[in-house]
Design a protein that fits this description.
Layout: E1 8-10, E2 13-15, E3 35-36, E4 53-54, E5 57-58, H1 59-62, E6 65-71, E7 76-81, E8 91-95, H2 97-100, E9 107-111, E10 120-126, E11 132-139, E12 148-154, E13 158-159, E14 166-179, E15 201-213, E16 218-228, E17 239-246, E18 251-257, E19 263-274, E20 278-286, E21 296-305
């Protein structure tokens, strides 16, 4: 992919986007800077071919993420990513509760070897009973590219409901190829040129609601109230989750859109538990705001089925269990 520079003013804030690894403009802010840019993603396989997989997941969702060992109870995360975190070997990520405090139910992990290495942010979660978990990760971009991807897994067996529609609701979180203010970056020596510095990825938070028919093997829904954690003045559209198909093993894959019949990405994941008590999933979205060009996000959601004891979202109010 190529990178097209895009800038739109929001008072003193300006935003531009690098392309997924993939392109970029090389405009990297110093720690604490106020300019936002987005990096290009790298696609190791052709995401247009749904038969292609990475780490056993659809390539358009896994992207650069090759292996995951996630233990939320002990707050440990080890990843193998195609892309400069620890090339060719699993990398240990460090828990950072200050980043995820705005999005209830998820944990944030970071990795940066030194001030001139890429800063990676992973956001993950697991269901209350441990049936399912999911992770989304990306760096903020450096040298015109960024790396990212998603992962989900099911622990144990899955059996869907025998009849009726079921719903799931809760919080959504995402990491993007747009740079945050950089407050979590390692501080470089004063002599380091700004042009070679990495960027911290900006995050998105929101809420998600899903309706599911296990009898028809179908899933759809919407991500609402989406906003940048650090840049709430930027308008983000709702994301519609459409055309999701559920496989016999409880995994599913579908497309996303803002306007009708105009796909802007994919969503997928897995159900877990008897009767599908929990669901985990990830997204890979592009073109989600008119204010930026070449924007991309990898999102994560882990939700309890409405009507279960673990479900706490008010989006489930009035929904049949």
């Amino acid at each position: 992919m190529t990178f097209d520079t895009a800038i739109k003013a929001f008072g003193i804030l300006s935003i531009s986007a690098l392309v997924a690894c993939g392109g970029g403009d090389g405009s990297n802010p110093v720690t604490g800077g106020d300019e936002v840019t987005a990096a290009d993603p790298t696609d190791p396989t052709d995401p247009a071919d749904p038969a292609e997989t990475v780490n056993g997941l659809p390539a358009e969702l896994a992207n650069n993420l090759n292996a995951v060992n996630y233990d939320p109870a002990n707050e440990t995360l080890t990843l193998e990513l195609t892309g400069f975190d620890a090339p060719g070997e699993p990398a240990v990520y460090v828990r950072d509760s200050s980043i995820d405090s705005a999005v209830a139910g998820y944990q944030a992990y970071t990795r940066q070897d030194d001030p001139t290495d890429r800063f990676f942010l992973a956001i993950g979660g697991t269901s209350a009973g441990g049936e399912v978990s999911a992770i989304a990760i990306s760096d903020g971009g450096q040298f015109n590219r960024f790396f990212g991807g998603g992962f989900y897994e099911q622990d144990g067996t899955f059996a869907g409901r025998e009849s009726g529609l079921v719903s799931y609701a809760g919080n959504y979180a995402a990491t993007t190829n747009l740079n945050a203010l950089g407050t979590n970056l390692a501080t470089p020596p004063a002599s380091t040129p700004a042009e070679i510095l990495p960027r911290e990825p900006a995050t998105i938070e929101g809420r998600i609601f899903l309706n599911v028919s296990f009898q028809e093997n179908s899933i759809n829904g919407q991500i609402i109230e989406r906003e940048f954690t650090e840049y709430p003045a930027i308008t983000l559209e709702d994301i519609r989750l459409v055309e999701g198909v559920i496989a016999d093993d409880g995994t599913y894959l579908g497309s996303t859109e803002i306007d009708v019949n105009s796909s802007n990405g994919a969503f997928g994941g897995t159900f877990g538990g008897e009767g599908g008590t929990a669901i985990a999933g990830v997204t890979n979205l592009t073109d989600y705001t008119d204010d930026i060009e070449n924007e991309e996000e990898f999102g994560v959601f882990v939700l309890e089925r409405c009507g279960t004891a673990a479900s706490t979202s008010d989006l489930c109010d009035g929904v049949n269990p």
